[in-house]
Amino acid sequence: MQMNKTLGRAAIAALGAFVSAALLAFGIPRTATAADGADGGNAPLPTTTDNGGVTQVFVSGGNRALFKVAIAPTVGDPAVSNTVVETTSRDFMLSSMFQVLDPKSFTANLEKEGIAIDPASWRNVGAEGVIKGSSVPRGQGVHLELRLYVVSRGSDAVLTKGYDVGQSGVRGAVHEFVNDVIKWFTGTSGTFGSRMVFSATTGRGQKSVFSIDSDGQNVGKLPTVSNVALAPAIGPGGGVYYAGGLPDGSYSLFKVGNPAAVLKQATGLVFGVAFGGSKMALVVSNSGQSDIFVGAPDGSGLTKVTRGGLNTHPAFGPGGQLAYVSNVSGNPQIYVDGKRVSWRGTYNMAPVFCNDPEGSKILFMGRDGGAWDIFSVDPGGSAASMKRLTQEQGSNTYPACSPDGRMVAFFSTRGGLYTSNPQGQNQQKISSVTGESLRWEGN
Amino acid sequence: MGFAVAFAIHAIFAGPFIYRAIVPAAVTEDEVPLVGKPVVAATLLKLGKPLDPKTLPDRIVPKARTAPQKDLNASKDDPGKKSDAGAPPPNALPSDLQNLITKSDPFAEDGGKTRPEEGNAAGIDGGTETDPNKVHAGDMYAARLNVFIHDRWQIPTVISQGEANRLCVVFQVNLSPRLQIWHVRPEPIRKSGNELFDDSARTMLMKLLDDHAPLPEPPPEVAGLYKGRTVNFALAGDVHGDSSKCK
Fold first, then answer.
1. pLDDT, tens digit (0-9, with 9 covering 90-100), for A129-169
2. Axis-axis angle for helices A2-22, B2-22 (nearest 10)
3. Which of A74, A309, B59, B99 could form a disulfide linkage to A388, CB 3.0–4.6 angstroms apart?
4. What is the DSSP string of A339-356?
5. In terms of CA atoms, which chain B residue is nearest residue A358?
6. Backbone phi, then psi, for A226, in 5-degree steps?
7. A106/A112 Cα distance (integer angstroms)
């Protein structure tokens, strides 16, 4: 009996010893040593701290993924709800930032939720953000409330906006809300609701000026004084200016809504105009030469800034830099303030500045064999910085860039007006119109 | 008798540890004290064609993936392994299919001509540097680990690349001896300042935890720094590998 007790105590003691040894072996943090490396530390090792043996691993960059957003029908008038859902979905898709989830996948009880959300229901369908809203009649119009929820932030809306608009103003209010959503995420507002202008052939030897919303809606012909209206641009106060051909063969600068020529003192044929940085640039042709003059937006103080060759297609940058096309070096190339920036290709034209959040760029069209494509280049003009946005996708011409630099628009022989991001990805046809000399309001 | 046996067994197992604690100098002659060294991940030359400054550049088209991405072959000594990924492996898990979906570029395009990107004929798949003069030797496992994490980490496009270049978040994880993440500390030990960015990194690490996906097997000489260890992942949004934002 005593022997059994002794053996029992010995067994308990032995167990205790094993536990102690295990604690000592595994419980005490082990400090990494160079002896961990077979080469005695000659090979580069990840950084380790001196006090805990925590290995530091540095990882750079990741894949890009669209932010998944669900757009729920708004509470209230179904017609308003349709406009909200369609406009928001279209804007988000064109922005190249969001993936709009299929409403068929929604599992949330929308009726019970109302204008609020149960985050778990939306997380289950993969939504990272949810758009909800309501509309109620107010006077002759409608009061619209729109909300942005970020699922990881819980059930409180991160952005709530209210709008009092007429029935026809719902789409504009939604554009404004989408711009605010983009601002919430990025710090810079979007530019939906802005417009573009361009010229297009309307008959034999006839050209007119058109306006179109930046999402491809509301295409409209603008009234011009002549049947040949070229190279429109949006000037101070939102006025649309263009070069108009007159019966006597001359070309002058006109403003839509004003039958009289804006500039009477221009000594030559005015074939183009650009505004930016409180300045105006004019393309003036005289005696077989084409030069660019820069002055105040009212036409005062015009000074010739080009010397030699044919110079056309002026466009201002955010700092007042002037880009244009010149053949002074033999064939048409892009220049900025007198310095050539396009060094690849034999025929480049129609430059426009793009204030891309990744860095300012110049977009232009370049000829590649029998087709035209859209390219970008850094304002510094290095050959290595030249990128191609379109290729083997028909002929793509006359790029324009949104004021926030996040969207590019261009015409394509694929059948209309297209938009993409500044890298040429997410190309979307937004309208069936084609034309030339495309300009985006605010840029 | 029992106490004597217990003491003897304790002494056998615990003795060396107690002796080390009392007389540390006697056992450190063959061990080099830990010295933190900055990891210098190898910069790999990108496979492609040299830039021709006279011709127009080709468009870079993100391709829709139809098969798992090829594993990085960082070794120039074994070019035979640069084979096409082919069909998914027979032991592919459901999460692999999910990876295929989630890893696709959001703007990937189907079909079209495959054009060689700017790079160097002597480069390798997974290389990032187009200028041979900027390629440098370094920790190949760090480069491999970088690619492994990079492929699984999805930064939302609402964070512009310019903004992402300024961000870095540090998460602490615990690795099992089989290099599986078994714990992720929920709060970053260093926040980036952008909660969506931090969320994206946390989601990636939690997915690795949920999938029981092991990290790539390290070479024996550095395995001890990873297997069964606490690891701080400093995740920077800068695709060019600028670690200065993590300090």
1. 999 999 999 999 999 999 999 998 899 999 999 999 998 99
2. 20
3. B59
4. EE---SSS-EEEEEEE--
5. B162
6. -135, 170
7. 14
The pLDDT tens digits for A33-90 are 222 333 333 333 333 333 357 888 888 888 888 999 999 999 999 999 999 999 999 9
Half-sphere exposure for A141 (CA within 13 Å, toward CB): 12
Q: What distance in Å separates the CA atoms of residue A438 and residue A440, rounded to the nearest whole number?
A: 7
Tell me whether residues A60 and B6 touch, CB distance under 8 A.
no
Alpha-carbon separation of residue A188 from A179, A184, A205, A404 (angstroms): 9, 8, 43, 8
How far are the Cα atoms of A98, A280, B158, B160 from residue A89, in angstroms, in the given order?
A: 9, 37, 16, 20
Q: Is B111 left (phi over 0), alpha (psi -120 to 50) or beta?
A: left
Mutate to test the interface with A, among B69, B117, B128, B160 (most CBs of A within 10 A): B160
Q: Spell out which residues of chain B touch residue A46, defining contact as CB-CB under 8 Å.
A: 37, 39, 139, 142, 222, 225
Structure tokens at A376: 């970008």
- Chain A residue numbers with beta carbons less than 8 Å from the beta carbon of B160 are 186, 357-358
DSSP H stretches of helix in A127-215: 170-186
Closest residue to B36, CB basis, from A37, A43, A47: A47
CB contact under 8 A, A358 and B161: yes
Is A378's pLDDT higher than 90? yes
CA A284, CA B126: separation in Å to the nearest integer?
Answer: 52
Beta-sheet strands, E only, within chain B = 154-156, 168-175, 181-184, 230-236
Any residues with CB less than 8 A from the CB of A108 and at least 6 apart, and which?
A: A72, A117, A118, A121, A122, A125
Secondary structure (3-state) at B98: helix
- The model's confidence at residue B50, banded by pLDDT at 50, 70 and 90, is confident
| Chain A residues within 8 A of B10 when measuring between CB atoms | 13, 16-17, 20
B 3-22 residues with CB < 8 A to A: 3, 5-7, 9-10, 12-14, 17
Closest CA to A326 of A295, A369, A364: A364
Using an 8 Å CB-CB cutoff, list chain A residues near B239.
60-61
Structure tokens at A23: 């604690």
Task: Please tell me the distance from the alpha carbon of residue A58 to that of residue A124, in angstroms, as a whole number.
Answer: 32
Single-letter code of the amino acid located at B195: E
Residue B59 DSSP label: P
Residue from B138, B140, B139, B121 nearest B130 by CA: B121
Between β-strands B168-175 and B181-184, what pairing exists: parallel, antiparallel or unpaired?
Answer: antiparallel
The end-to-end CA distance of chain A, in Å, is: 99
Residue A242, φ and ψ in degrees, nearest 5:
-160, 165
pTM attached to this predicted model:
0.78
Q: CA B49 to CA A246: how far, in whole Å?
A: 53
